[in-house]
Amino acid sequence: MFNTLDTSKTDDLFMVRKGWFSHEYELTDKIYSYGKITYHRLSMCKATVISATGTWIFKREGIFSRTLLITGEDMAIIGRATQALFSRKVVLTLQTGFSAEFNRPSIWSRVGIWNSTGYGEIMHIKSNPFCLTDFIHIDPNKAPTNLIPLLIFFGSFLTVLRRRRQAAH
Questions:
Q1: CA-CA distance, 35 to 11, in Å (whole number)?
Q2: CATH number for the domain including 72?
Q3: How many domains does the chain have?
Q4: Quick check: is 1 in a domain?
Q5: Distance CA 25, CA 100 (A)
Q6: How far is it, in rounded angstroms, from Cα 145 to Cα 130?
Q7: What is the mean pLDDT of residues 74-98?
Q8: In terms of CB atoms within 10 Å, which of 63, 105, 124, 157 comes out highest?
């Protein structure tokens, strides 16, 4: 159904929304499809990701919690992401010990950056609020290839949450 992402062959990807009123986004390089993320209608803070490497569920830990959980198909927790109050940085910690930070350089920036102490800048996700497509650039030399799909989808999830929060105000 979906192709396995190979960062040595492609480092520029697109997260394409299926339509203005759709709750589904597809990860593609304009030739192949690498997965999709679907937001649940009742709770916009919950999403299901299906890719060639696995299926994940992103959701809030509680109603008023600032912690996001990443669970697998078997509902086992894979990782947690926390954001301090009044901070632009989200810190992702996986059960494997991998840790990365997703941040925006400024309040008005449309670019989100995944940064890890062991790998440096892993990828950039550039969102465009007036378009159905977000641009993703991966640094193939520094990226841990087995975690790239998870980081792409979770970064897109954080970007969409930010967009919805801004639209609500």
A1: 16
A2: 2.40.160
A3: 1
A4: no
A5: 23
A6: 31
A7: 91
A8: 157
0.70 exceeded by the pTM?
yes
In angstroms, rounded to a whole number, what is the distance separating the alpha carbons of residues 127 and 108? Answer: 12
CA gap 92, 81 in Å, rounded: 4
**What's the CA gap between 41 and 22, in Å, rounded?**
10
Nearest to 24 by CA among 38, 35, 44, 13: 38
For the segment 21-64, what is each residue's pLDDT rounded down to a tens digit?
Answer: 788 999 999 999 999 999 887 666 899 999 998 899 999 888 88
Q: Look at residue 111 and tell me if it is in a domain.
A: yes
Strands 33-39 and 47-51, bridge-based pairing: antiparallel
Place of tokens 């193939």: 140
Inter-residue contact 2 to 50 (CB < 8 Å): yes
Amino acid in position 128: N
Long-range contacts of 93-96 (CB under 8 A, 24+ apart): 94/70, 94/147
Q: Which of 94, 93, 160, 99 is CA-nearest to residue 125?
A: 160
